[in-house]
Amino acid sequence: MINTMECAVDAQSLISISLMKIHNSRTQRGGIKLHKNLLVSYVLRNARQVYIKEKYAEIYRMQQYEEVMTVCNEIQELNPLDLDAEDADDEEQARAACCGEEASLCGSACHRDAAQPAAHARTASALPGCEEDCKEPEPSYYRSCCMEASPVSHCDQFPANSSAHCNKTTVLDLDTHVVTTVENGYLHQDCCCDALQCGQGAQSPAKKRKVEFGCCVSDVEEVSDFTAARKRAKREDCSYSHPDYTDTSNISNLISIFGSGFSGLLSRQADLEQICSKQVLASLGAWTRAIVAF
Amino acid sequence: MGRNLKVPGQVCLHHYHRSFGLPGIRAQQPPSGHDTGTEHRLRHHWRPADIISTVEFNHTGELLATGDKGGRVVIFQQEIENKNQPQFRSEYNVYSTFQSHEPEFDYLKSLEIEEKINKIRWLPQKNAAQFLLSTNDKTIKLWKISERDKRPEGYNLKEDDGRFKDPNNITSLRVPVLIPMDLMVEASPRRVFANAHTYHINSISVNSDNETYLSADDLRINLWHLEITDRSFNIVDIKPANMEELTEVITAAEFHPHQCNTFVYSSSKGTIRLCDMRVSALCDKHSKLFEEPEDPSNRSFFSEIISSISDVKFSHNGRYMMTRDYLSVKIWDLNMESRPVETYQVHEYLRSKLCSLYENDCIFDKFECCWNGNDSVVMTGSYNNFFRMFDRGQRRDVTLEASRENSKPMQVLKPRKVCAGGKRKKDEISVDSLDFNKKILHTAWHPQDNIIAVATTNNLYIFQDKVN
């Protein structure tokens, strides 16, 4: 029976429910129902897209808050003689903020989307203004600048040198009392973007990156994109070390399995071994066998 | 052709229900009478095996076949004596019962194969016997149902009970004669079409040439000759080279009623492909693709699920086809691929409940649909034992209920109304009080007359329209 109140369309709970359905289908009489599992995988994919989008929005909001606080602290504590030291500290904080969270693909486009009701999972094609951006290849913007270098993904152009991360200098013009954030080096613009100054400028590349990610995730037919998406999803999930995400690490890790598309349902031992959480491993022990020999 | 349903609401008069679990065979207590409209005392003890999984009239409508989850087929026959009394023409009695499929085990894949009958299709009658195809997930069988109402008596070498006589005692010869006996209906399997499907069979359809038929599973469609069981031709194969790329499966398939070269198959993505077997041996390339663009404002987590087509049926005249997805019924003109010509909302009030329906698995229910004899009315099932009829010509629709509590024999069925929101009027039922365990997935319409068969979970209801 249906509850009198329609259940809140929560991406996270939908993911859990979907995974449970897939798990249960293995023990159903008559064998795996291909049709039903395919439909469940679509729901999983839709929920995952919304879930990731919401997470990015959250991270972005947190980032913005921290950067605002950073700038406020700068203004309050600013001592002309200590300018360089302060900047170094700020750099440290800013880098920690954005590198800790594995984020910054969103920009304000994501933020805007996340504000909409979660009940509607937007496909990549429905994202505003994404049609024209979809096709444009921008490998240098493809990955978050805070990601460790990926040897596999063809999209990852970021050098392994971590010192190229987020070179940001915050400067206070003592004459005009204007705070300016200057990015230099390899910086991906919206990585450490200062919401006060750089938000607008970062929109365009951020949107592109977001959309490409979304496009790749939802485009099942492109196998190579899919492999990239799977590997990208896995790395993101393993980098979720922030304390706020430990309770969702199970979800993230499970997402990483199913980020590989339909084959996620036929997950092999190798995939499972890459997952961080042992609990997840234990509960998914049943997945180590191939489902049906075709 | 039968009368049109002039007034939806006074549609169905004669309520005739029969509970399906076969009393006397597996029942714990034998009920008083097992066939003609008697209350089945064990109704509350129905077993999962009793769940009706398919319903199909034969080409004359005289016979009605049902299949169930336990692999049994029960055939009902229209009472001939009552044919001349219009108000009793929906009296159907059990004609034959047989176990069509048994559970099997595939040792290679360590998989159990369910015995549930997915589909039954009748062959047009050619001689005294009746033939039907029944299929479970993997195997199709051709059954011959024949009557025997005479038996031979007076053998020379055998006693009546079958014992052989001592030849030394035989002093005369006589010719055995056929004497009448109680009618016996025998069902025997004449063909078994096996080992041709890796995935679960969802459809079978007999060709208008009466020689071939197709069977469809999730990814492939095979063409068979009714006489040949050791081979079939694969005519559609949508399995991708890499299963990771799988995006859609075949959900239903049917031959055109008149053109023996044409068939359609529907997909989980909401598309229908029409194929012409004359074009090439492998019909992977469709001749026509019927697809309606998705309304982006309705996009949700479950858009893919509710657009999946659960049934496709050609109209009797062969000019239209009807598809059923989770929330609607669509009528397509075979000459127009871009969109359906008619769309009927079956239970649009469920659109806001999709999340709950996903949780309790109801969103995966596969509703069937059917045409009436002259293609003027279409029918499909819903929840709470409701079923819906849409009169295409008069643009009217009605919701009726198949339940024992709400209908007595000879009583006109009262139209039902579901209150989607706001203030509930008297006699309306609110969406939240619908029973989603009571679903009508299978319905069938007599080919000529206004007699319908409606299957609830484990009961079969036969209704007819009102006789003025």
Automatic annotation (TrEMBL), chain A:
<comment type="similarity">
    <text>Belongs to the IER family.</text>
</comment>
<dbReference type="InterPro" id="IPR008653">
    <property type="entry name" value="IER"/>
</dbReference>
<dbReference type="Pfam" id="PF05760">
    <property type="entry name" value="IER"/>
</dbReference>
<protein>
    <submittedName>
        <fullName>Immediate early response 5-like</fullName>
    </submittedName>
</protein>
From TrEMBL, chain B:
<dbReference type="InterPro" id="IPR015943">
    <property type="entry name" value="WD40/YVTN_repeat-like_dom_sf"/>
</dbReference>
<keyword id="KW-0853">WD repeat</keyword>
<protein>
    <recommendedName>
        <fullName>Serine/threonine-protein phosphatase 2A 55 kDa regulatory subunit B</fullName>
    </recommendedName>
</protein>
<comment type="subunit">
    <text>PP2A consists of a common heterodimeric core enzyme, composed of a 36 kDa catalytic subunit (subunit C) and a 65 kDa constant regulatory subunit (PR65 or subunit A), that associates with a variety of regulatory subunits.</text>
</comment>
<dbReference type="InterPro" id="IPR001680">
    <property type="entry name" value="WD40_rpt"/>
</dbReference>
<dbReference type="InterPro" id="IPR018067">
    <property type="entry name" value="PP2A_PR55_CS"/>
</dbReference>
<dbReference type="InterPro" id="IPR000009">
    <property type="entry name" value="PP2A_PR55"/>
</dbReference>
<comment type="similarity">
    <text>Belongs to the phosphatase 2A regulatory subunit B family.</text>
</comment>
<dbReference type="GO" id="GO:0019888">
    <property type="term" value="F:protein phosphatase regulator activity"/>
</dbReference>
<dbReference type="GO" id="GO:0072554">
    <property type="term" value="P:blood vessel lumenization"/>
</dbReference>
<dbReference type="GO" id="GO:0000159">
    <property type="term" value="C:protein phosphatase type 2A complex"/>
</dbReference>
<keyword id="KW-0677">Repeat</keyword>
<dbReference type="InterPro" id="IPR036322">
    <property type="entry name" value="WD40_repeat_dom_sf"/>
</dbReference>
